[in-house]
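Table S2 (text version). Query chain:
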Amino acid sequence: MTAIPTEQLTTEQLTTEQLTTEQLTLNYTTQAIGGSFAVHADSFEWLCRLPEAALHAIVTDPPYGVKEYEEDQIEKRGKGIGGVWRIPQSFDGVTRSPVPRFTALNSKERKQIQQFFTEWAALAARALRPGGHVFLASNSFLSQLVFAALVEGGLEFRGELIRLVGTLRGGDRPKGAEEEFSGVCSFPRGAYEPWGLLRKPLLPGMKVSDCLREYGTGGLRRTEGDKPFSDVLASERTPRRERAIADHPSIKPQSFLRQIVRASLPLGVGVVADPFMGSGSTVAAAEAIGAQCIGVEKRALYYDLAVKAIPQLRDLNPAVPQTMTLERGTRETDECCLALL
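Corresponding structure-token output:
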């Protein structure tokens, strides 16, 4: 299929054309899982080769382009000796998971991150239909840099989605001087995770309703209880049973992912992509709600992990209700906020 600029595609082509499996997976090693696919490929290369306007949405947790998933850093993480992965102190007898030490990035590496996301956004915008949304996981330390780069690459910033989740990250006393400065913490205890909410711009003069009719994109799906999709979602930490299925450092819980995958398809149909598939949890979430997802993973270790994990994650029944959101004055809000104190 020859790529056609989005502006030249007809309404009929964008609304009725069904891309074949070969057009979505190309000639890469691929595993079909239900109606979805796991693809062993580089995200940039796959997006570049994908037919234009092929995707309705992207939901992904990227690696931030430098260091943390390089072979030497993964080896150090596995041995518990650090590198860019910080090994936190135990807390009340609880062993805490390694987290990327983003404060260790120098100015050159921060520029690399900016370039990484600017270039990636340009490819993502090419692959998305007009009005297609991007949900992208970030962190409080780098989100401002990452979101600005995505806008520079051609996406439209639509706000932030706050995953409200109690963690054991941050709040540590100064390393090596814990007793001397016992009343000080280097960073605040993390209680949320910011997700960038971006969108491929609508065509000139187009309204959301026009975009929905023509391309099936442009808005966000309301909850199953017919309430507006909220930009603050209460979330559990990833349960142990899910981590046992997929041993990946950045796996997100099914109870959270199923909500945002559902929201990304405003009319309940279309193709969602996770270009940084990792454990395959986004693909599993899509499969669980009856959506089609293409997961792309560069590293063979995680591709193999995802192929095995997706069916198991898909078949789980999350402990937290999929429709749970934070609304002012509700009992759920009060209980969740109190739990984070």
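Notes on Table S2: The first helix runs from residue 11 to 16. Residues 1-16, 90-94, 321-326 have pLDDT under 50 and may be disordered.
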